[in-house]
Amino acid sequence: MDITTVKTLGELKRNSYKSRSVKDELRENLISALHEGMNPFEGILGYEDTVIPDMQTAILSRHNIILLGLRGQAKTRIARLMINLLDEYIPVVEGSELNDDPFNPISKTASDIISIDKDNTKIKWLHRSERYAEKLATPDVSVADLIGDVDPIKAASLKLPYSDERVIHFGLIPRSHRSIFVINELPDLQARIQVALFNILQESDIQIRGFKVRLPLDIQFVFTANPEDYTNRGSIVTPLKDRIDSQILTHYPRTTAISRQITKQEALLTEAQKQGINSNEMLENLVEQIAFEARQSEYIDNKSGVSARLTISAYENLVSTAERRLIINNEKNTNLRISDIYGVIPSITGKIELVYEGEQEGPAKVAHILIGKAIKTLFENYFPTPDKVKKTQDVNPYQTITNWFAKGNHIDILTTISNNDYEKTLHSVPGLIDIVKRYHPKASPDEQLLLMEFLLHGLSEYSLLSKFRLEYGVQFKDMLSSMFTMSSDEDDDDNEIDQDYYK
What we know:
The protein is an alpha/beta fold.
């Protein structure tokens, strides 16, 4: 029988329905999911051996939880996925404002309805998607928002004293009875508001305008916060922290492979982009490596963190940069290029918090530095580094390339050049294709072009070539001749040869 067809309290009793607390629901449904090999936290990657087991332990212990970690570590998403562990439907007294359980009403309104209608009390069924409430803690959040306040109009119309529960307009927390309630960025909540949560967590008491109301609220609380010592905006008051049963630490992806999985899963690409733009693992790794470099950069506040949203936005911009070129050249498809990576700069500059040294450099310059470091880090995965070549090989494999540039030659790789012009430009550099074939003999023609361009960018990071920023691309020249022939116009912020800029 479909239990949701039951419409009255009497029918509910005859079907032997038994109520459970929200924490018991979560616990028992988690046990069933684990027995069946199901993952209620589907889509959360990189936490399989760390955060998820801790979450499961806390749920089994029926604890209120705080997820502690830097921004962009999926804290809120984990909390939202907890609704998968709730019963699909629960019965509530029709006409009650606090999701009252027909067997255990807590509000006077529901109690009065049941005392009058008895077994004929009408019930409705609440879906689990309606049993989740979330509040972002901001300094302007008030006790009335969370707990409630006296409604003077209701008191006057009903001719009731303020001490009567019926004149109370309940806030978000009482209205989340039998639900999951999440407060994001808990330290941002004013201390006096945090204090108001004490009795709710411990004694299920709430106080409104000095009147104490006993409401045995049934709520699964989940809080999220940056580590206390990582924020200047506020902190969690100690008595409240003591009443939160389990503190779970989150973290950023620990490998580029996991980070790449997250980015591919979360990036919102159109079907046209998926069909017309050919991606490559090298570019995907490069995007992720930028975030890894940012988290270690002396220019960026590591206490603030570098969100996973940086790489998601960056990958979307990377694809869109290639798509713009595709549209301009009226081509049907194209491949991602190394030079497309400079199209992700707007995704970087808006998502990093700079320290003083970073502010001095400027966000755009810091973004270029991060890109350069990422290229240099990945270079040794594809080609021998120049430093290693000097120690292990008698002949420098890059000599033919650097000699060609030393003769005054240069190439421009513009972001808008067509596929054919891109290929011609790269093949115009003697020795470039030979090195790629030597170290990557199984590479396809498209992969060869990508590796050829990557090689040029890598050599510039090791100071064997110079790399100039152009308005719509980059230019590669000989290092020494560029330094001697640099004109006064090239000495400004847009065209200077600054090796620190790319490292």
